[in-house]
């Protein structure tokens, strides 16, 4: 499951609001947990959170929160559930300005890391810190700089695949720009 995710999905560009909101939400839920836990539960998360449609999630009530807290198929953390609902509302608000996709992608760095095999893994950057601060100003929560760096990797904004990996450059975002 993890191998398939990393070989097919991780690091590929995500440039639609629903897809980006889903990734943002799942990265927040992953905080403090293994990614494999989140990936195994992703189908249940999609059902529980209305396929991550921001308008639907923003309309969740306390009754929905209680329903989610009783759903063994997802991570039952009240703070993360409330953060997802708050982030849906913030996503809707952001539409009035630039929109979630353009806002997040505006923090793409001018260069991507060039990690060699076995080198230490970068967990945050100046851009992920700036993105974190900017999202917080816009009402988003659970968007710390490490979580935002993980998002940037997951959506292809940075290419964290090691040099020599068969996946390095596969997103097309950094072709010729490394």
From TrEMBL:
Choose any GO biological process term that the UniProt entry carries and state it. Answer: base-excision repair
One Pfam entry for this protein is: Adenine_glyco
- Residues annotated for Zn(2+) binding in this entry: 161
Q: Which domain of life is it from?
A: Bacteria
List the Gene Ontology MF annotations in alphabetical order. Answer: DNA-3-methyladenine glycosylase activity; metal ion binding
**PANTHER family per the UniProt record, alphabetical:** DNA-3-METHYLADENINE GLYCOSYLASE 1, DNA-3-METHYLADENINE GLYCOSYLASE I
Q: What is this protein's name?
A: DNA-3-methyladenine glycosylase I
Whose protein is this, by species? Answer: Terrimesophilobacter mesophilus
Q: What is the lineage of its organism?
A: Bacteria, Bacillati, Actinomycetota, Actinomycetes, Micrococcales
């Amino acid at each position: 499951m993890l191998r398939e995710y990393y070989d097919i999905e991780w690091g590929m560009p995500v440039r639609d609001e629903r897809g980006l909101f889903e990734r943002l939400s799942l990265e927040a839920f992953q905080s403090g947990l293994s990614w494999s836990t989140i990936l195994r539960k992703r189908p249940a998360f999609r059902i529980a959170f209305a396929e991550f449609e921001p308008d639907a999630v923003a309309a969740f009530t306390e009754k929905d929160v209680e329903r989610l807290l009783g759903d063994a198929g997802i991570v039952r953390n009240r703070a993360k559930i409330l953060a997802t609902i708050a982030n849906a509302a913030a996503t809707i608000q952001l539409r009035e300005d630039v929109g979630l996709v353009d806002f997040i992608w505006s923090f793409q760095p001018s260069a991507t890391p060039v990690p060699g095999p076995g080198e230490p893994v970068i967990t945050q950057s100046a851009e992920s810190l700036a993105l974190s601060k900017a999202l917080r100003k816009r009402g988003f929560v659970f968007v710390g700089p490490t979580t935002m760096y993980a998002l940037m990797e997951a959506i292809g904004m940075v290419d964290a695949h090691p040099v020599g990996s068969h996946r390095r450059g596969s997103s097309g975002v950094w072709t010729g720009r490394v």
